[in-house]
Amino acid sequence: MEEKRIPRHVSIIMDGNGRWARERGKERIFGHFEGVESVRACTEAAVEEGIEYLSLFAFSEENWGRPDAEVNGLMELMMRSMKNEYRTFMDNGVRFVVLGNRERLSSSLNATIDEMMEETAGNTRLTLILFLSYSGKWDILQAAKKLALKYRDRADELPEASAEEFGDLLVTAGIPDPDLLIRTSGEERISNYLLWQTAYSEFYFTDILWPDFRKEAFRAALDEYARRDRRYGKVK
Ligand code: FPP
User: What is the pTM of this model?
Assistant: First the structure.
């Protein structure tokens, strides 16, 4: 029997927290609270399945436009969740990484993130990446600016710059592109997430709302991935 194909990198657009809460007549933030439980469940499942990278779109650049109460509630929730999970990360060999426009985060949140990243840097079982204040266009633009600076004094060499070189200037440098991108809650769009990095990702959409997306749902997505035929624009 052929061995089941496991993705190296699974990325998730966690969507539907607000609707989950509304269905229960509660404030949106309750959906986010419950969503943290799904983060824990999927992280555990990823460790169990031997996945190397799990990345989560936790807060987009556009999300800053939500009401202050929700933004503050989310930031507080993230800070608390990170601190709460520290022990579990250490016990399970999870390296924790935050990527995004960190300048927009509060200094206290940045300090917590720095501490968590330093403390977990030596863990090798799973890399858990939280995209915070991230957008794909922001990432591509900041990479383009770096490329411009790099070639400032030797513009004649610019035409030789490769896609690989450009990829190394994105915040995801050194991280393999997602093999599988999951989006929950029935929405089927990329929403300015990993635009460059998902060039050949397999997309998986489910109607399940994020707070209900637990181990079984995660495994169903992996099963579907194992059935996909990846050709990267070539023929078999
Ligand atoms: C999308 O639902 C969800 C978010 C914008 C936030 C998700 C963040 C978490 C679950 C926190 C995870 C953090 C850690 C540190 C574990 P939505 O609000 O867009 O839902 P809607 O589309 O139904 O309105």
Answer: 0.95
